[in-house]
Structure formats: structure tokens, C-alpha cells
Specification:
8 strands, single chain, alpha/beta
């Protein structure tokens, strides 16, 4: 089967002395849940940024879908928008001619999926860290891509919230069939979530 994502001899240098990645080869099939683990500074986030298109390789090639969605470590929500507005913005940007009601309904669907039905009108500063990450995941899901990238999304959260989000993420993966690539510093988290560990 042809891989959905293929990295060949991928490398990233920031300078002659600063080599983040060298000679990375990886094939990811549609529907895989991949967890990339490693020590701090080993190039995990750099690799994810290149898959997302935020960064470009210095050498080698990446074959991937044109559009992917990313969940950042700090949720990266727009502080002047409510949870509903943060998710609606993505839907509005991707769909032409959709009515405001349909955009709102679609955004609500993703927020409800993440357990945020009662928080749609709250601003990021009114939400807990876990709730902000849930909005970030809802926003990424609303982008409606085949690939979901997560950059250590649970590292700043307490243990109970992390466990709840692990359960939610596994459910999303099973129900949507999305290809998920997640960076983590935790071997335990990787073993709990992923079907492949890199």
C-alpha cells in the first residue's frame, strides 16, 4: 500500500554547527497513530513542523497531503475570540458560501465532541488549560483534514485531565480514521495511545 506520508533522507540544519535532523526515513500509512518520542532537543518538534509545512527541510523529500491540521502545545487560540469563534474561523476560511448558521452548527458539533457544550461562549482566559487544549483539538478537527498533528499537547496539563484527553483522542482516532502523528516526551503516553512509536 502506498504510504500517506513518506519522508526520505530528510534533514534539517539551522547552521553548519546546528543539525536538528539527519537522514530521517519514515513511511506512515493512512489511519496510523504514530507517536514520536525522544529527549529534549532531539528534533521531534522540528520533524513535526516539517510535516505540517511550518518549516522546510534542508535536504531530502516529504510526500504528504496538501492540508494537515495541527494542535500546538499551548493551544494557540486567538484570545479575543470565544471558543465558538476560534473554531468557526477555521470552518469559515475553508468553506465558501456556507451560512453563518451552518458554520455555527458545525463549530458546535466539534466543541460538543470535545465536551465543551457549556463553554462555547467563553474566552480563552476564562478556560482551564485542559479546556483550551480541547478547543485547540476541536479547531483542528474542524479543519477536516486526513492528518492530525499534535505537538506535546498534554505536557502542561495535570494527570487527570491528561487521562481524560487520552481517552477522547483514542475515541476520535477510532471514529474518524484520521492519521494522527503526535510528539511526546513520555514513553508511557506513547505506549498508551499509539499503534506505532518512532
Amino acid at each position: 500500500m502506498e504510504p500517506l506520508i513518506k519522508l526520505e533522507k530528510l534533514g534539517r540544519k539551522f547552521s553548519a554547527e546546528s543539525v536538528a535532523l539527519k537522514d530521517v526515513n519514515l513511511e506512515i500509512q493512512k489511519g496510523d497513530f504514530i507517536c514520536i518520542i525522544g529527549t529534549s532537543g532531539s528534533g521531534k518538534s522540528t520533524l513535526l513542523n516539517m510535516i505540517s509545512g511550518i518549516d522546510t527541510p534542508s535536504e531530502g523529500t516529504i510526500k504528504k497531503p496538501d492540508h494537515v491540521a495541527m494542535v500546538f502545545q499551548n493551544s494557540a487560540l486567538l484570545p479575543w475570540f470565544t471558543a465558538l469563534d476560534n473554531v468557526s474561523l477555521i470552518i469559515e476560511a475553508q468553506t465558501k458560501g456556507l451560512s453563518k448558521k451552518n458554520i455555527r452548527d458545525e463549530a458546535l458539533k466539534h466543541l460538543e465532541l470535545m465536551g465543551l457544550k457549556n463553554f462555547v461562549d467563553k474566552y480563552p482566559h476564562q478556560l482551564s488549560g485542559g479546556q483550551r487544549q480541547r478547543v485547540g483539538i476541536a479547531r483542528a478537527l474542524a479543519a477536516n483534514t486526513d492528518v492530525l498533528l499534535l505537538d506535546e499537547p498534554f505536557s502542561a496539563l495535570d494527570t487527570q485531565t491528561t487521562i481524560e484527553l487520552h481517552i477522547d483522542l483514542i475515541k476520535i482516532w477510532q471514529e474518524t480514521g484520521k492519521t494522527i502523528i503526535m510528539v511526546s516526551h513520555s514513553i508511557e503516553e506513547a505506549v498508551t495511545l499509539a499503534n506505532r512509536i518512532v
